[in-house]
Design the sequence.
């Protein structure tokens, strides 16, 4: 099972994503931003980082990378794609997912262990979770506030495409001001998932807050087998 | 590239025939005798480019001219045995230590104090960028950063100005670089008002055979400048910023601060690692302070020949720069490599893959001089050693400050102490809420501590711990420490106390301390009192390291940290690096309610307590008092304690450990309880009787060589045997209590963790988050 991990200039968590694929039992394949081939991988991870420095708008330049010209049609054809943090931003910029990401409402970078609720356990990347399962994985972002217009949000909710929600304490606020506490979403087909928190940092005992991230990668390995 | 002729270039030829030309040596920070010496070395007046080069390289920051005579003690006190693990020592970009299994680790801590005061965000950001390039230039992959920040009083207007920018700068650069920030310090003290300290540390890893050095050798080899273009930022930053004091009526200095581009540096890191892996780099140097002046002269000075450089080939962001400005510019994200001609093509292919601009700007010659040209015109012709290594050395006058007797005589013995349990509880709450001991997560949550996936411990644990080898789990622990209040009372003891605490923190995490780096922040060396403080601190570190058997691998000196006549407290920051076979076995600092299904681990206090409150956190918080003598240093006991902590960790006898430092036992217990929200029940009676101290002293005194550990019932006998084998004092002072939700000290007070947490976590957000 070959899972590609794209390295853009400025990608930071590509090594971690490849490690997560390997620990889950897959074969990680490095994909290069300047190469317009996906090298026949079975799924793709767009990792976290600051592609091209993200000095413009997060993900805005990465969407024009040659690798995206191969990825976008493949994703539309059903290839499982997971966008983590910067990868989520790139998926929104590429219009594979609706909405956009803007700066955290408190205007500072935030890194913490973040509880999430799995709202949709039927996607290619979440099938190993139970619906409603509460997990804790790493959150770290500067531009993590998910925004969309009301009709898009209603559509996402109506179609069950809100995949992860931040668990917010009574009277508290979510970590970045995301509308409706949305941490991650999926496309209509359920093969493309984007989320701000980082499952690839919650894979190994002793190196993160939990092992909850592993199920993202075991899910996709199964979905590829079943496809 | 099109060659642009520069008007009015001062050539070597012209300088030889115009001996009497007046030159602006004073404005460039040179003293009259230093200028005379340059003329002597050259046998003529320097060209303006040479003058610029000497002025930055002979500045305090680059030449260590005031500190060199004292720093020699570090190598003098390094025995052969201590040298065994040292692969590269003082003098290179960073020291390199052998951590076993063929792995080498390089680490260094460096200051970026003055730029951060002027332009907090960029100053702090480029401080991180600079130290990371030092680590890269050793051939290593950077694997983590830490930062030690010191500010004025927490509620001072200037702290509100600089802190958010400095924190955002450290985070903005390090986060974008993809390096986990695993620890450091945040300290507030009014002595830093007007002189905040930004000390940045980076650590990197490599295989031993991949170590690279900064030297230009091999006649005909090419000198390549790669990375960002050269611009007008940071010109003269070294001499103008780092070597002058901030006076109220001083000139505006904003243009002298560099501007960072972390994305460019991230790409540069990956590019350099590909270049190293392809074995196409013969020598390498980063461009930091003093820019091209430093890189060319150091490479040439360390090599075996000369070097010729054509300055008109340097890619510029701003073509209006004068030649001396190009030489002095501190534009960030640049490196210089020495490459064999046969490997040029491969070198260029790799840099192109990363879209990194690379330009051959010169070559290694068989001469003895560094020669720099603009087109056909020679503007520099100097012996490189005279620029880079044989700068002026000052043995500045020193004098024990006159105020010290009164300060040391102002002992804290008569300060009012809490009389009952309620008083002890109130004292603990106020300490836990105080600026220096309060929860720092409002700051540390702005740093990515997880990137790379190798972080085993990060703040607020005692040390930052990262995995180096993903197969075996071998890794390193690092802690940076300094209590400048101690150092103010006694700089020799204060420096040793910084060393002792960092050493203890590393051992507390379960790592064997191997080596240190230091960052010596002091006031003006022209003040004999400051110079005495500096000499005492260096002596303290050098002798302390000898006692502990761990070498100094390098570091940094930052002088002139003062405003007007008022210097900061002496701040000799010490970073200790330790190694662990498998960092998955590191010891965290917080209690756990259950471990392997077992609850109620025993809490042991290691070490003994005396009435030692000089410079303590309690005297500061309760009485705003600084006087007396700091706690007694006993490095032999620190070493014994370290051995116990490391062995206990290796043998799985402890599930948590926390060092005792500022705020003493009470604060350590509170921190260990808050870490995971698991309380404890403590009894002080036995130890009070054994050590002959009252509960207040046992709770708040800052005696050294102490730690608390949590030991599972099944391991208690083996653990106490381990302590008894070396005769080290240990006492069972209580149990972990996951049910109570409180820290209880029998017969004195019970403090609910919610109340403790509220006090501990409210301080920083109340001041900074509402802005």
Sequence:
């Amino acid at each position: 099972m070959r899972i590609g991990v794209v390295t853009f200039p400025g990608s930071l968590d590509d090594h971690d994503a490849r490690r997560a694929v390997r620990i889950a039992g897959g074969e990680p394949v490095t994909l290069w931003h300047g190469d317009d081939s996906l090298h026949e991988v079975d799924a793709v991870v767009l990792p976290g980082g600051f592609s091209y420095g993200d000095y413009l708008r997060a993900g805005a330049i990465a969407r024009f990378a040659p690798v995206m010209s191969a990825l976008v049609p493949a994703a539309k054809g059903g290839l499982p794609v997971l966008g983590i943090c910067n990868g989520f931003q790139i998926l929104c910029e590429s219009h594979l997912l609706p909405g956009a990401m803007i700066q955290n409402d408190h205007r500072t970078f935030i890194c913490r262990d973040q509880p999430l609720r799995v709202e949709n356990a039927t996607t290619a990347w979440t099938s190993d979770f139970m619906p409603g399962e509460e997990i804790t994985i790493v959150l770290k972002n500067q531009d993590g506030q998910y925004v969309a217009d009301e009709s898009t949000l209603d559509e996402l909710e109506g179609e069950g495409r809100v995949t992860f929600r931040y668990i917010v304490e009574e009277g508290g606020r979510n970590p970045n001001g995301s509308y409706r506490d949305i941490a991650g979403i999926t496309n209509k087909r359920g093969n493309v998932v984007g989320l701000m928190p980082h499952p690839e940092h919650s894979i190994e005992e002793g190196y993160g807050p939990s092992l909850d991230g592993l199920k993202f990668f075991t899910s996709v390995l199964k979905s590829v087998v079943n496809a | 590239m099109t060659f642009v002729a520069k008007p009015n270039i001062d050539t070597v030829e012209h300088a030889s025939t115009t001996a009497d030309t007046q030159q602006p040596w004073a404005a460039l920070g040179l003293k009259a005798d230093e200028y005379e010496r340059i003329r002597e070395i050259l046998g003529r007046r320097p060209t303006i480019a040479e003058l610029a080069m000497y002025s930055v390289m002979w500045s305090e920051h680059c030449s260590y001219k005031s500190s060199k005579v004292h720093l020699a003690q570090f190598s003098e006190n390094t025995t052969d045995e201590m040298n065994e693990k040292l692969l590269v020592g003082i003098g290179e970009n960073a020291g390199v230590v052998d951590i076993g299994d063929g792995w080498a680790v390089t680490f260094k801590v460096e200051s970026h104090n003055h730029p951060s005061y002027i332009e907090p965000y960029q100053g702090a950001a480029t401080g991180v960028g600079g130290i990371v390039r030092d680590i890269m230039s050793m051939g290593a992959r950077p694997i983590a950063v830490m930062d030690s920040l010191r500010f004025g009083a927490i509620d001072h207007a200037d702290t509100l100005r600089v802190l958010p920018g400095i924190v955002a700068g450290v985070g903005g650069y390090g986060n974008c670089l993809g390096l986990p920030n695993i620890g450091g310090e945040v300290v507030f003290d009014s002595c830093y008002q007007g002189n905040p300290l930004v000390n940045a540390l980076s650590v990197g890893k490599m295989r031993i055979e991949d170590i690279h050095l900064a030297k230009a050798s091999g006649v005909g080899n090419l000198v390549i400048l790669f990375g960002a273009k050269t611009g007008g930022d940071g010109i003269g930053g070294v001499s103008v910023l780092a070597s002058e004091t901030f006076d109220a009526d001083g000139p505006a200095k904003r243009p002298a601060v560099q501007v960072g581009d972390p994305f460019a540096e991230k790409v540069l890191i990956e590019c350099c690692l590909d270049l190293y892996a392809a074995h196409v780099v013969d020598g390498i140097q980063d461009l930091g302070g003093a820019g091209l002046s430093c890189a060319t002269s150091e490479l040439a000075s360390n090599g075996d020949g000369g070097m010729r450089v054509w300055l008109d080939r340097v890619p510029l962001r701003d073509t209006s720069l004068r030649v001396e400005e190009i030489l002095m510019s501190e534009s960030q994200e640049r490196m210089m490599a020495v490459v064999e001609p046969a490997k040029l093509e491969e070198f260029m292919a790799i840099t192109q893959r990363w879209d990194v601009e690379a330009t051959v700007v010169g070559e290694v010659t068989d001469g003895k001089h560094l020669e720099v040209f603009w087109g056909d015109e020679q503007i520099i012709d100097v012996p490189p050693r005279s620029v880079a290594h044989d700068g002026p050395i000052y043995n500045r006058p020193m004098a024990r400050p006159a105020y010290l007797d009164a300060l040391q005589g102002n002992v804290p013995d008569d300060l009012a102490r809490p009389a009952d349990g309620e008083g002890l509880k109130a004292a603990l709450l106020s300490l836990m809420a105080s600026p220096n001991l309060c929860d720092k997560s409002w700051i540390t949550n702005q740093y990515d501590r997880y990137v790379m996936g190798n972080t085993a411990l990060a703040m607020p644990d005692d040390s930052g711990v990262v995995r180096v080898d993903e197969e075996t789990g071998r890794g390193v622990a690092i802690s940076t420490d300094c209590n400048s209040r101690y150092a103010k009372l006694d700089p020799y003891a204060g420096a040793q106390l910084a060393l002792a605490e960092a050493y203890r923190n590393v051992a507390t995490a379960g790592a064997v301390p191997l080596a240190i780096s230091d960052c010596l922040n002091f006031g003006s060396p022209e003040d004999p009192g400051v110079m005495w403080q500096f000499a005492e601190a260096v002596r303290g570190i050098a002798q302390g390291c000898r006692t502990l058997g761990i070498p100094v691998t390098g570091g940094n000196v930052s002088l002139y940290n003062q405003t007007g006549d008022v210097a900061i407290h002496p701040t000799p920051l010490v970073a200790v690096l330790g190694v662990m076979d498998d960092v998955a076995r590191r010891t965290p600092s917080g209690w756990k309610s259950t471990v392997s299904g077992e609850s109620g681990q025993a809490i042991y206090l290691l070490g003994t307590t005396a009435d030692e409150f000089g410079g303590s956190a309690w005297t500061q918080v309760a009485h705003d008092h600084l006087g007396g003598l700091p706690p007694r240093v006993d490095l032999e006991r620190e070493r014994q304690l370290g051995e116990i902590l490391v062995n206990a960790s290796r043998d799985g006898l402890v599930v948590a450990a926390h060092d005792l430092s500022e705020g003493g036992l009470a604060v350590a217990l509170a921190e260990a309880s808050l870490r995971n929200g698991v309380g404890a029940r403590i009894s002080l009676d036995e130890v009070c009787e054994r050590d002959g101290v009252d509960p207040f002293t046992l709770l708040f005194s800052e005696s050294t060589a102490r730690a608390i550990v949590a030991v599972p019932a099944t391991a208690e006998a083996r653990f106490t045997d381990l302590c008894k084998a070396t005769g080290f004092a240990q006492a069972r002072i209580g149990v972990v209590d996951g049910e109570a939700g409180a820290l209880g000290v029998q017969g004195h007070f019970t403090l609910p963790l919610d109340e403790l947490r509220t006090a501990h976590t409210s301080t920083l957000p109340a001041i900074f988050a509402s802005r």
Summary: Chain B touches chain A through 34 residues (CB under 8 Å). The longest strand of chain B covers residues 141-151. The longest helix of chain B spans residues 157-177. Residues 264 and 333 of chain B are 6 Å apart (CA to CA).
